[in-house]
Write a structure and sequence with these properties.
Blueprint lengths: L4 E5 L4 E6 L10 H17 L3 E6 L3 E3 L4 H9 L2 H20 L4 E5 L2 E3 L1 H8 L2 E5 L3 E3 L13 H19 L2 E3 H6 L5 E3 L4 H13 L3 H16 L4 H17 L1 H11 L9
Parallel strand pairs: 2-3, 3-5, 4-6, 5-7, 6-8, 7-10
Antiparallel strand pairs: 1-2, 8-9
Helix pairs in contact: 1-3, 3-4, 4-5, 8-9
Protein name: Enoyl-CoA hydratase
Family: Belongs to the enoyl-CoA hydratase/isomerase family.
InterPro entries: ClpP/crotonase-like_dom_sf (IPR029045), Enoyl-CoA_hyd/isom_CS (IPR018376), Enoyl-CoA_hydra/iso (IPR001753), Enoyl-CoA_hydra_C (IPR014748), Enoyl-CoA_Hydratase/Isomerase (IPR051683)
Length: 261
């Protein structure tokens, strides 16, 4: 791990990953994208219980770094294609992490920063934060982040904010589903901790399967009975799994399951 990121894991198994470029508002460049991709691989291998993603300083992430943008403007189409694929792959890794993920939005988020938030399961933001999908004002499109942003905020909000490039506040981010909760800066960590407490009460393997289940149901385009078969197989397998047996036994015996101890 370089100075571009910090990664810490507490005794509960909760990892905190911090974008550490406060001097440029935690903006993306090729190096930061590569470091994030490697960090998500590491979290997958080490089976983090949950992930909190945040930014150092007063911003979450301002999106693309100006020097990086300048280099891409001077690069070939092939260079830009490779660069965009690296960004898309990094975002996909975050989106597909099996552990629950929380974006701790400590300040402004634009472009790729909104993409990072959208890849997280939940997001808690400060009420002073500003957001924007401003690519059209540069003659560009939020292409690589679009699948994740649209899954988070829906087509209607995407049409407005992707087409206008207008900035919006935390209250709007909350109303369109980009944020799950909004608080003042003093309450940010308490709000994150409350969500973590709820998340840590669930079985870790069950939560990973739930994330897969949500994708399965949302993307299913085949016959209904095919989906019914897949969902039935999932619950049957979970009921007889070690974690499922522990959870059911704990409930019947009126005790806490082992994963909470």
């Amino acid at each position: 791990m370089s100075d571009l990121l910090t990664l810490n894991k507490d005794e509960r198994g909760v990892a905190t990953l911090t974008l550490n470029r406060p001097e440029v508002h935690n903006a993306f460049n090729a190096e930061l994208i590569a470091e994030l991709s490697a960090a998500f691989d590491q979290l997958l291998e080490r089976e983090a219980r949950a992930l909190v993603l945040t930014g150092a300083g007063h911003s979450f992430s301002a999106g693309a770094d100006l020097n990086w943008m300048r280099a891409m403007a001077e690069g070939s189409e092939a260079d830009n294609r490779a660069d965009a694929r690296a960004l898309a792959a990094m975002l996909r890794k975050l989106d597909r992490l099996p552990c629950p993920t929380i974006a701790r939005v400590n300040g402004a988020a634009f472009g790729g920063g909104v993409g990072l938030i959208s890849c997280c399961d939940l997001a808690v933001g400060v009420d002073s934060a500003r957001f924007g999908l401003t690519e059209v004002r540069l003659g560009l499109a939020p292409a690589t982040i679009a699948p994740f942003v649209m899954n988070k905020i829906g087509r209607g909000a995407a049409r407005r904010y992707m087409l206008t490039g207008e900035r919006f506040g935390a209250d709007t981010a909350l109303s369109i589903g980009l944020l799950a909760e909004c608080t003042d800066i003093d309450g940010l960590d308490r709000a994150v901790d409350r969500l973590l407490e709820q998340l840590l009460a669930g079985g870790p393997h069950a939560q990973g399967h739930v994330k897969e289940l949500i994708r399965l149901v949302a993307n299913h385009q085949g016959p209904a009975d095919e989906l019914d078969l897949q969902t039935s197989e999932l619950i049957a397998a979970l009921r007889v799994s070690r974690e499922g047996q522990e959870g059911l036994s704990a409930f019947l015996e009126k005790r806490k399951p082992g994963w909470t101890s």
